[in-house]
Design brief:
There is one protein chain. By secondary structure, the protein is mainly alpha-helical. Helices cover 61% and strands 0% of the residues. It has 16 helices and no strands. The radius of gyration is 22 Å and the shape is elongated.
Length: 271
């Protein structure tokens, strides 16, 4: 029998959502934030999360992670208990945690944003069969870790070949903005320059431009001939800073393309 310190009708509302429906999921986390705000102390918030985690039903246990995810980037008192709870989840074998629980744990860890302690717990989920879980790993790599350790580079490099475009996109971003650089990483990024997903291809171009890789030059030249040019390609041009790009960049500006990123790219290329 449940001994949760919340009314049964509130628990029913918290459990009544479809995580694959964006609107339903947003409503769910709005409710979780209301619960979080109604609790008047850190001890009560953590106490409720732990009470959720002790329940036998996985959907209820997932609420413990959701409770701490709603404002995870605003505090750090919860990080160690969150890590410990996530580390207890079995990810292999017959006793593996269910999908809802794995998604909730990965999301909560990813929402921490900038605490190096969550990196290793997140990487446990990197090869999950569910693309949403893998995406949480890619997007949740702590911002302050630079360069990344080799195990994180290996996991993200594998994600560059992921079947899901959101996973590829965020993996390219996570690797692209770091100082990590070697021929193997550049080759993996170069394979994405013509990715079927435009955002992924643009992230790869920006990552290679930051590394002054010459393979990105003809890609940028072709991009600037298209009717629509994404912002990241201008940022890539600015990072590459190759004067060879000036004719096409100037042509865009003279054709009436007004954009601050285009102006910065022209300046960076010597114009």
């Amino acid at each position: 029998m449940s001994t949760l310190p919340i009314p049964p009708d509130l628990l029913a509302r918290l459990l009544d959502y479809d995580e694959d429906d964006e609107g339903s999921s947003e409503t769910h986390f709005d409710r979780m934030e209301e619960v979080f705000a109604a609790l008047d102390s850190t001890a009560n918030r953590l106490g409720l999360a732990q009470a959720f985690w002790e329940e036998p039903e996985e959907a209820v246990r997932a609420l413990g992670f959701d409770l701490l995810a709603v404002q995870a980037h605003r505090f750090d008192w919860h990080v160690q208990p969150l890590i410990e709870a996530a580390q207890l989840l079995p990810l292999e074998g017959l006793g593996r945690a269910g999908l809802k629980l794995r998604r909730a744990a990965a999301n909560a860890l990813a929402c921490v944003v900038d605490d190096a302690r969550v990196l290793d717990p997140l990487l446990r989920f990197a090869t999950d069969e569910d693309p949403v879980v893998r995406w949480q790993v890619a997007r949740g790599i702590p911002a302050g870790i630079d360069p990344l350790p080799q195990d994180a580079v290996d996991a993200l490099t594998a994600m560059l070949r992921d079947e899901d475009s959101d996973v590829r996109d965020w993996a390219a971003f996570a690797l692209g903005v770091r100082e990590n650089d070697n021929p193997e990483l550049r080759d993996a990024l170069a394979r994405l320059l013509f990715d079927a997903d435009d955002e992924t291809a643009a992230e790869a171009a920006y990552a290679l431009a930051l590394r002054k890789d010459p393979r990105v030059l003809p890609v940028l030249e072709r991009a600037f001939e298209q009717p629509e040019v994404g912002r990241l390609y201008f940022e890539a041009a600015g990072a590459l800073a190759d004067p060879a790009l000036l004719p096409k960049l100037r042509e865009l500006r003279e054709g009436g393309f007004g954009d601050a990123d285009l102006d910065r790219a022209i300046e960076a290329c010597g114009g």
